[in-house]
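Posting this for the archive.
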Amino acid sequence: MGNNLSVEEKAKMRVLVVDDMVNMRRTVRNMLRQLGYANITEAENGLDAWTKLPSAKIDLAIVDWNMPIMTGVELLRKARADERFANIPFIMITAEVDEGTIAEAAETEVDAYIIKPFVAKVLEEKIDAVMEKKGNASPLDTCLRLAKVFAGAGQFNKAIEQLREALKINSSSPLVYLILGDLYNQRGMLDDAEKAYKKAILLEAKFTRAYDGLADVYEKKGDSKRSMMVMQEAVSKSPRNASRQTKLGNALLEQGMLKEAKAAFETAVKTEPDNMVMRSEMAESLLAKNLNDEAATLFESVSKANPTDINVYNRLGIAYRKQGKLLEAIDEYKKALAIDPGDENLYYNLGTAYIAAKMIDDAKAQFKKALELYPDFKEAQEALDKISNP
């Protein structure tokens, strides 16, 4: 492709437009049609786009940076991690470009970004630039692409050869050292991986993906404290990565740094307020450390967002039970059973809550229901025998 796409090239291109605002999608769609692009797929958020990617066969994605349910950045991260979509050019639309945005753009390999408001001419220039780059890969890009292909095929030595060729082309590329580090890490060559990640960081101090790899290496080496310190350094450089904040929170919990862990979790929630999967994971971590008040608060918010999720009711019941809020726990188990009355584990948990509340007859009834559904439920039988024959 040349620097200006031909009419035929534009007609063949399949463009994905992702924005939670209907008016913005309409504006971008009209600009694209004005420029000659007719094959346009729309999505209202990152999750909607993610479900459409496998069948849409997209050539270019134009994505809003901040959206509910799944942000544009999160969509880009998922795409880059999936070999089916890793090479799709992404143009990100953002309201501003500050230091945090630049850090996020660098670590997610965004191809270009456009600042609102913009006109059709700006959009055209950005599309031409990213498609030119895709159609005319540099020798360095070719080596990196081949390295990833060989690595995906399990041909480790050939992947390393391509990366060595890449270093001959550009010995100061942090991306080459990052990929080297990832390969060594996957192979369990932790010392080599550590050196590669450190070299990437030395070449680019804000290259946070290298910090992620280095933290993983230290964790595998059993040095949890050092791993946590590296994660803290990465978070200081790119604080708006909710996944990294969550991992840091978990690491801080393991080190007994509860106040700092809670702060990391709170930042993650503020960054991605609609990510209920992340909230559930944080709640589980807090519950495992008997931080039951904090776990219950997160489970409550998840339950409100997903009122048919049985597991959340169950976990919230456990958190309430650990807090001594037995009537609240009983109520949560009943909510779950109203959705799925055929889950023997829910009857068992409800019976356990009734025992704690000294409601023995109710407990017996629940254990019996659990055994009706699953006669070999050993724990339910033992609990029933214990309260029937004190």
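The first strand starts at residue 14 and ends at 18. Strands lie at 14-18, 39-43, 60-64, 90-94, 112-115.
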